[in-house]
């Protein structure tokens, strides 16, 4: 068991290291010079002043140091939770900008991923039991999974937002409000949350439902189910076993899908101008703010790795075979 | 009489039509009898075994009756049949290696199965039976994956017989095992019968040599019909049906396991059960076939307890 988690941790550590390195490299080799663009934005025409400003920014961001030192500094700062200063909202620290966006992304992702997983599995399990339901769940599921994230999001925004006018189509809350803990603000927040949440929830729902349905049907036709039936065991017991065994691959599926789900969430945020990490990435690219870009990516990578690790632990807890395998089979 | 099967017909529904896998089969079994059921692959052995306990979704009970201990088994009625399953008729399936839920500890699964059938688990009895088949009681705390093939086989054997059924169907329980394990399993099955855990047993195998060792009576099927049924000794020394003779003669030495290869050594192949030919179904391969064989041969008792379906027996 310890060995298993040790190995997992090593893999995750390695992934993290590689991710950090790539993350550090990419913005530095991206076209465009952020310092020039910042100086240009300041709109200073005096050449002397431009040079002073350039020197100031270069020194501030440490671009005058050799590459290896920049890389080492990057790690040092990272371990202290310091992602640098944002260029877009200069001089706010990147970590502060990210922390402002994280609650929105988490508030969108966690409920949509968990709820679509739970509801999808539940619908799939029901579909495996009833013909009538199967005839609805299956086609609806296929339509939902076949739909690109973007498309469903735009469709929802257009239908429920623009045409029906039930929900706002952009932003995390109304511009007329100041963030506070008042009922008015929380209600407004939820109101803005519905559409992006719904689009993420719906798109993931179909896949889970279809997967669960197929897994349960497979389990119900497996040898242990047939044996139990031959011994007259009630359907209730057989279904209970089948459900439990069918959920296990769905947990693995969740781990595998996590990256896709995160990407979907980021795109959805952009469609709905939702002030989460996805919108932050867009802003960072538009403003060539590579500290912000780096910080955001770092945060996402870390989040995905942590989530994967949690799923690993859950899997070991619920699937006895992994535990038995770790202890070593007896002959 | 423990079991009486009369004119049993069970067909598989397929898109091409009915597969007549069990076509007018009649036989009886005494209390305490072990009946060896042999024949080439596809002759209907598994179908007969399943018919006595649970028809699968594609099987249809077309005709005939089954009587166990004087009571008729409602084999075509899944719901009513349930009362008999496990309690009166039980099964060691062909797929014993995968018959247990992989994600439940074996002991827990057995407890849940018994409770679902309204029986309380008698732990002491269960452990004494494990001892009988030389399984440590710790297997109850194991998952199936932690057991070897032979151990799983014996565990399923214990589970299936836990409620002391009147009839046990053991389908190809030795086919996946090596010779020494085969002997041990066969011995354990005889032990269960002798201990009274099961009253009578149908031991299905395509290995005629092994059958005659463990069974009191051997029944050979061909293409969904009974070919010959006789006491083991008579079956080996004085077979009467041309098919059985070919099977027996092709065994180099009784007890040596070459049956696999030799069974397919008879020239030709059995007829399609979708649309079987009229008359004797063995006619196309029979070395002594004559004109009368265009008529279907009835099952006749040529000697007490020795039944043959052949005009020339
Ligand atoms: N599910 C099925 N659908 C159609 N035909 C089947 C099915 N299962 C078995 N059969 C046919 O029924 C016949 C008897 O099969 P089976 O009882 O499994 O033979 P055995 O156990 O003697 O090898 C075979 O000809 C086989 O092709
Ligand atoms: S009835 Fe005729 S064809 Fe059939 S086994 Fe006997 S001799 Fe051969
Ligand atoms: Mg078979």
Q: Any overview of this molecule?
A:
The complex is a heterodimer of chains A (331) and B (313). Chain A is mostly helical and 331 residues long. Chain A folds into 2 domains: 34-82, no CATH class; 98-330, MetI-like (MetI-like fold). Chain A contains 13 helices and no strands. In chain A, helix 1 runs antiparallel to helix 12 (290-318), helix 5 (94-129) packs antiparallel against helix 10 (235-271) and helix 11 runs antiparallel to helix 12. Chain A is globular. The two termini of chain A are 20 Å apart. The mean pLDDT of chain A is 84. With 313 residues, chain B is of the alpha/beta class. Chain B has a domain at 1-30 and 37-88 and 206-243 and 263-313: P-loop containing nucleotide triphosphate hydrolases (Rossmann fold, 3-Layer(aba) Sandwich), CATH 3.40.50.300. Chain A binds chain B through residues 222-224, 226-234, 236-237, 241, 244-245, 248, 319-321, 324-325, 329-331, and chain B through 50, 53-54, 56, 82-87, 90-91, 93, 95, 98-105, 112-113, 116-117, 142-143, 145-148, 156, 159-160. The complex binds adenosine-5'-diphosphate, iron/sulfur cluster and magnesium ion. The site of magnesium ion (MG) has 4 residues of chain B, from helix 1. Iron/sulfur cluster (SF4) binds at residues 242, 280, 282-283, 286, 288-289, 293, 297, 310-312 of chain B.
In short:
The complex is a heterodimer of chains A (331) and B (313). Chain A is mainly alpha-helical.
Euclidean distance between termini CA atoms of chain B:
27 Å
What would CATH call the homologous superfamily of the largest domain in chain A? MetI-like
CATH superfamily of the domain at 1-30 and 37-88 and 206-243 and 263-313 in chain B: P-loop containing nucleotide triphosphate hydrolases
Strand content of chain B: 15-25%
How are strands sequenced across the largest beta sheet of chain B?
6-7-8-3-9-10-12-11
Q: What is the ordering of alpha helices and beta strands of chain A?
A: HHHHHHHHHHHHH
**Number of H/I helices of chain B:** 10
The end-to-end distance of chain A, rounded to whole angstroms, is 20 Å
List low-confidence stretches of chain B.
none
- Tell me about the largest β-sheet of chain A: none
In percent terms, what proportion of residues of chain A is strand? Answer: under 5%
What ligands does this structure carry?
A: adenosine-5'-diphosphate, iron/sulfur cluster, magnesium ion
């Amino acid at each position: 068991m310890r060995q298993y988690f040790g190995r997992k941790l090593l893999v995750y550590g390695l992934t993290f290291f590689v991710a950090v390195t790539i993350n550090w490299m990419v913005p530095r080799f991206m076209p465009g010079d952020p310092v020039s663009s910042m100086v240009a934005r300041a709109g200073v025409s005096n050449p002397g002043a431009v040079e002073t400003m350039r020197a100031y920014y270069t020194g501030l961001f440490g671009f005058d140091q050799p590459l290896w030192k920049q890389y080492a500094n990057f790690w040092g700062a990272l371990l202290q939770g310091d992602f640098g200063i944002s260029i877009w909202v200069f001089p706010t620290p990147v970590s502060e900008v990210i922390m402002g966006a994280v609650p929105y992304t988490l508030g969108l992702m966690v409920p949509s991923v968990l709820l679509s997983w739970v509801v999808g599995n539940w619908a799939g399990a029901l579909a495996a039991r009833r013909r009538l339901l199967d005839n609805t769940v299956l086609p609806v599921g296929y339509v939902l999974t076949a739909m690109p994230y973007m498309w469903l999001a735009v469709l929802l925004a257009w239908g429920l937002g623009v045409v029906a006018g039930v929900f706002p189509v952009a932003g995390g809350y109304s511009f007329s409000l100041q963030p506070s803990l008042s009922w008015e603000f929380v209600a407004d927040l939820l109101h803005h949350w519905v559409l992006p949440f719904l689009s993420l929830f719906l798109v993931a729902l179909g896949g889970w439902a279809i997967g669960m349905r197929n897994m349960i049907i497979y389990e119900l036709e497996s040898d242990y189910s047939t044996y139990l039936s031959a011994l007259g065991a009630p359907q209730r017991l057989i279904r209970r076993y089948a459900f439990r065994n069918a959920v296990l691959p769905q947990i693995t599926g969740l781990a595998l899908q996590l990256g896709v789900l995160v990407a979907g969430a980021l795109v959805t945020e952009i469609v709905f101008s939702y002030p989460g990490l996805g919108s932050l990435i867009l802003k960072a690219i538009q403003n060539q703010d590579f500290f912000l870009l780096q910080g955001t990516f770092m945060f996402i990578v870390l989040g995905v790795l942590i989530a994967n690790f949690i799923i690993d632990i859950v899997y070991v807890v619920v699937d006895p075979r992994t535990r038995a395998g770790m202890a070593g089979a007896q002959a | 009489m423990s079991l009486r099967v009369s004119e049993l017909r069970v067909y598989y529904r397929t898109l091409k039509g009915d597969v007549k896998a069990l076509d007018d089969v009649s036989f009886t079994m005494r209390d305490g009898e072990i009946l060896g059921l042999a024949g080439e692959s596809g002759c209907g052995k598994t179908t007969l075994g399943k018919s006595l306990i649970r028809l699968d979704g594609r099987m249809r009970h077309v005709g005939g009756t089954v009587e166990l201990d004087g009571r008729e088994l409602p084999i075509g009625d899944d719901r009513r049949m349930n009362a008999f399953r496990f309690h009166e008729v039980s099964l060691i399936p062909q797929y014993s290696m995968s018959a247990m839920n992989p994600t439940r500890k074996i002991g827990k699964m057995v407890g849940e199965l018994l409770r679902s059938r309204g029986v309380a688990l008698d732990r002491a009895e269960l452990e004494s039976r494990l001892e009988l088949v030389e399984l440590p009681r710790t297997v109850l705390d194991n998952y199936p994956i932690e057991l070897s093939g032979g151990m799983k086989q014996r565990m399923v054997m214990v589970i299936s017989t836990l409620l002391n059924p009147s009839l046990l169907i053991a389908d190809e329980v030795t086919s996946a095992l090596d010779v020494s394990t085969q002997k041990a399993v066969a011995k354990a099955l005889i032990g269960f019968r002798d201990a009274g855990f099961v009253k009578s047993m149908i031991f299905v195998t395509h290995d005629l040599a092994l059958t005659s060792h463990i069974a009191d009576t051997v029944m050979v099927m061909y293409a969904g019909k009974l070919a010959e049924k006789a006491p083991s000794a008579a079956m080996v020394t004085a077979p009467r049906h041309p098919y059985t003779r070919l099977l027996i003669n092709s065994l180099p030495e009784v007890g040596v396991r070459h049956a696999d290869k030799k069974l397919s050594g008879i020239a030709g192949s059995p007829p399609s059960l979708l649309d079987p030919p009229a008359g004797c179904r063995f006619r196309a391969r029979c070395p002594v076939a004559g004109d009368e064989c265009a008529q279907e041969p009835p099952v006749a008792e040529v000697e007490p307890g020795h039944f043959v379906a052949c005009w020339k027996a």
